[in-house]
Structures are given as structure tokens and as C-alpha cells.
Amino acid sequence: MSKESRLRASVNQKLTEMGERERLKELLRAKLTECGWKDQMKANCKAVIKEKGLEHVTVEDLVVDITPKGRALVPDSVKKELLHRIRAFLAQHAT
After folding, report:
1. Cα–Cα distance for residue pair 25/14, rounded to 1 Å
2. Domain of residue 82, CATH code
3. 94, 37, 35, 44: which is closest to 66 by C-alpha?
4. Which phi and psi angles does 64 have, rounded to 5°?
5. Name one GO cellular component term (predicted).
6. How open is the CA angle 57-58-64, to the nearest 5 degrees?
7. Which domain holds residue 26?
8. How far apart are CA 73 and CA 69, in angstroms?
């Protein structure tokens, strides 16, 4: 396991243990709804289904098709806010 992987796992464990991970997920959900991201993703899903036909699309296909678009559509302001909150949490709970 690389140093980066161990660090990532350690951060994730600390966020989970202290309940911050769930709070961040709730914040992310709210921010994505607020900025219209969910509506954009819903429209992307409908477009893929319309293009391929309902009988020819699985959930897995849909996830593969829209995941890159979904990540690209997350506003930078939302990413920056989450990163800021994670850094602040880690600074406050550094061991």
C-alpha cells in the first residue's frame, strides 16, 4: 500500500469515526441540488436512455456513461468548499 493510499485511508477513517463524513455528504447533496447539478444529471440520464432505448440500457451502462460528465459538472466552488471543510476538520483533529 502506497503512502498516499495509507494517508487517504487514515483521513477517511477519521472522517467516518467522528461523523464528519456523513455531514460532508449531506452538505454535498444540498449544494448539488442547489446549483442544479441533480437536474442536469437527470437530463443526461434521460438523454442516454432515449438515445439507446430503454430496453438496451442497464443501470451499470448508465453509470459508466454519466459518471465522467457528472464529475465534470460539479462546480469548482462546491469542490473548494468541501476541500476547505476537510482541511479545517483535519487541522482541528490532528493527532
Report:
1. 15
2. 1.10.246.140
3. 44
4. -60, -40
5. nucleoplasm
6. 95
7. 3-93
8. 6
Residue 84 identity: H
Q: Which three cell numbers stand for residue 52?
A: 439507446
Amino acid at 20: E
Question: Which pLDDT score is estimated for 1?
Answer: 81
The three grid cell numbers given for residue 78, joined into one nine-digit string: 462546491
DSSP letter assigned to residue 55: G
- How big is the chain by its Cα radius of gyration, in Å? 17
H/E stretch holding 38 reads helix 37-52
Per-residue pLDDT reduced to its tens digit, 14-65: 999 999 999 999 999 999 999 999 999 999 999 999 999 999 999 999 999 9
pTM of the predicted model as reported, rounded to 2 decimal places: 0.80
Rounded-to-10 torsion of CA 18, 89, 38, 65: -90
